[in-house]
Every structure is written in C-alpha cells, then in structure tokens.
Design brief:
single chain; alpha/beta; seven-stranded mixed sheet
Length: 151
C-alpha cells in the first residue's frame, strides 16, 4: 500500500478509526498513539555484491500503558497528524507504507500492509512482518549463500 492510498482511505472514512490485525487477531490495542512518522531511506549491498536502495514511509504505533487508558484516535485525527508531518517533510506519497509496533508481548517489528477491510466503525488493516529473503536468489543470480559452505 502506498502512503497516498493510506491517506486517501483516511480522508474517505474520517468518522472511523483504524484497527490493526495480524494473523486474524487484533495486534494493536485500540488505545494506541502515533508517536512518529518517518520517511526511511536504506542503502545496502546484498550477499551477491549487488547494491540496493529502499525507501518507505513508516508510522510508529505505541501504547502509553498496556491497560486501556481510554485514549482513542480517529481517522480525522490521523489525517491531521499526517498532514503536519507532510508540511515539514514533504513526504513522497508514492512510497510504500509500513507500521512499526511493539509492546510487552511483541518485539519491535516493521509490519507491511497485506490488505484492508472496512466495517461500520473501523478500517481494519491486515498486517504481516515481511520475511527475510536472499535477494540474489529472488533474481536467479549467483548468491554467495547458495551452498552450505557459505554465509
């Protein structure tokens, strides 16, 4: 999902709230806060020696307390936060969007959006942690980790 698609969904459902699920279970409790929105750039070299460049938008979700403190943030509020960040950073809205989250039961992880579903009161996001992959193997290139004697 691109950042622009995310923004469009927020604007089309201002009266609703976001809910985040993983493996068909609610991952992020409803009293989350948005603590940071960042545009991330990563330059890397894979095990086959090929350079890579990645950019994405990341929204950090946080709980002030494990126990529900009654805090709720609606889509209209989230739109205002995104607009404020966009004014300061001029976000590239064509980039994919990810959500970062952790709590007492989940290690900090970056989640990709697999899909969304709209209900009467919420916009549900189906999230998943991307799997680690050997990039040269994805492109049928010779990888340094091709055999058991390497990596």
């Amino acid at each position: 999902m691109t950042a622009q698609h995310f923004i469009d969904q927020l604007r089309h459902t201002p009266e609703k709230s976001l809910a985040f699920y993983a493996n068909a279970k609610q991952l992020v409790p409803s009293h989350y806060h948005i603590t940071e929105i960042k545009e991330v750039t990563t330059r890397s070299v894979d095990c086959g020696g090929r350079p890579h460049f990645d950019e994405h938008i990341e929204i950090q979700l946080w709980l002030a307390k494990q126990k529900d403190d009654g805090h709720r943030i609606g889509n209209a509020d989230i739109s205002k936060i995104v607009d404020l960040v966009d004014q300061k950073l001029q976000l590239n809205k064509a980039l994919p969007i990810y959500f970062e989250y952790s709590d007492a039961f989940h290690a900090t992880a970056r989640y990709e959006v697999l899909g969304t579903k709209e209900t009467d009161a919420q916009l549900l996001f189906d999230l998943s942690i991307p799997k680690t992959v050997c990039k040269p193997q994805l492109t049928n290139a010779t990888a340094c980790c091709a055999g058991p004697e390497s990596c």
